[in-house]
Automatic annotation (TrEMBL):
<dbReference type="InterPro" id="IPR003313">
    <property type="entry name" value="AraC-bd"/>
</dbReference>
<dbReference type="InterPro" id="IPR018060">
    <property type="entry name" value="HTH_AraC"/>
</dbReference>
<dbReference type="InterPro" id="IPR050204">
    <property type="entry name" value="AraC_XylS_family_regulators"/>
</dbReference>
<protein>
    <submittedName>
        <fullName>AraC family transcriptional regulator</fullName>
    </submittedName>
</protein>
<dbReference type="GO" id="GO:0043565">
    <property type="term" value="F:sequence-specific DNA binding"/>
</dbReference>
<dbReference type="InterPro" id="IPR037923">
    <property type="entry name" value="HTH-like"/>
</dbReference>
<dbReference type="GO" id="GO:0003700">
    <property type="term" value="F:DNA-binding transcription factor activity"/>
</dbReference>
<feature type="domain" description="HTH araC/xylS-type">
    <location>
        <begin position="172"/>
        <end position="270"/>
    </location>
</feature>
<keyword id="KW-0804">Transcription</keyword>
<keyword id="KW-0010">Activator</keyword>
<dbReference type="InterPro" id="IPR020449">
    <property type="entry name" value="Tscrpt_reg_AraC-type_HTH"/>
</dbReference>
<dbReference type="Pfam" id="PF12833">
    <property type="entry name" value="HTH_18"/>
</dbReference>
<dbReference type="Pfam" id="PF02311">
    <property type="entry name" value="AraC_binding"/>
</dbReference>
<dbReference type="InterPro" id="IPR018062">
    <property type="entry name" value="HTH_AraC-typ_CS"/>
</dbReference>
<keyword id="KW-0805">Transcription regulation</keyword>
<keyword id="KW-0238">DNA-binding</keyword>
<dbReference type="InterPro" id="IPR009057">
    <property type="entry name" value="Homeodomain-like_sf"/>
</dbReference>
Length: 278
């Protein structure tokens, strides 16, 4: 039985494909997971995911399987299955998606939803995502991310947690502030003060509602915007850094590499090469 490499490429915010294909393998095993999120949608046939406690869960038509970053991955064809057709996507979520991906868990870091009632709509969006992601066009990755966002919106009503929680108005205000002032230096303490909370209370409430710390959220918004600017403008790395509130280009490059797994310059080059691929 063949296994996929232990790491997926990190130079793009979204990498998608379909199995079976001509590079098909029967099983993917990544003991340390990946630095991005992974979504696997079963079209038909039967797959399986092996959990850290060694139990196995079968994947059937309509199952949406979601791995969070650095979660061990072990999935593939179900035992004795003749086929397993699926669409997969590695991605770095837009910051406002984080709360949407709080799915029921098979195991820590492994979420699942059953989409039998909306299977056709989700499949259509995922196929559109693959088509635009692998096509020409300067904004192809943004278009692919838009299609994936529609998938998550379609999946949200399927979540049994849907409607059980709502965002605290102070946290909502903080999200708006970050979005409106992404080009400015922002820190957790001043953001908490603006919404009337101490740093510690703000951090606790934000993490409880958004599943990430406020500092991680702020940085992800800035770096995601910076990545888009690198691929859609001729600005220098220093100019992009300054436009997103980073006073030091060196610090910006360090954080960018940590987030995307590559330098800003290499990220831009990869995007330019990809835009010409068939």
């Amino acid at each position: 039985m063949l296994e996929r490499p232990s790491k997926a490429p990190l130079s793009s915010p979204i990498i998608a494909g379909q199995l079976p294909n001509d590079r098909m393998t029967n099983r993917a095993v990544r003991p340390n997971g990946t630095e991005d999120w992974l979504l696997v949608f079963t079209l038909h046939g039967h797959g399986r995911v092996r959990l850290p406690d060694r139990t196995v869960r079968t994947l059937d038509k309509g199952d949406l399987l979601l791995f969070s970053p650095r979660t061990p991955q072990d999935y593939g064809y179900a035992r004795h299955a003749s086929d397993w057709w699926n669409i997969w996507v590695h991605f770095r979520p837009r910051p406002h998606w984080i709360g949407w991906m709080s799915w029921p868990l098979l195991s820590p870091g492994i979420g699942i939803l059953q989409a039998s009632d909306t299977h056709a709509e989700i499949e259509a969006e995922l196929r559109r995502m693959i088509e635009v992601a692998n096509g020409p066009g300067r904004l192809r990755l943004d278009a692919a991310m838009n299609a994936l966002e529609r998938v998550l919106i379609l999946a949200d009503p399927l979540n049994p947690r849907f409607g059980q929680t709502s965002t605290d108005e102070r946290i909502h205000k903080a999200l708006v502030i970050v979005g409106e002032r992404v080009s400015e230096p922002l820190d957790v303490e001043s953001l908490g003060n603006e919404v009337g909370l101490s740093r510690s209370h703000f951090t606790l409430l934000f993490r409880r509602q958004m599943q990430v710390t406020p500092q991680t959220y702020i940085e992800s918004v800035k770096l995601t915007r910076a990545a888009q600017m690198l691929q859609s403008s001729n600005w220098t790395v220093s100019q992009v850094a300054a436009a997103n509130g980073f006073s030091s280009p060196y610090y910006f490059s360090t954080r960018f590499r940590k987030f995307f797994g590559t330098s800003p310059s290499a990220y831009r080059t990869a995007g330019q090469k990809g835009a010409g691929d068939p």
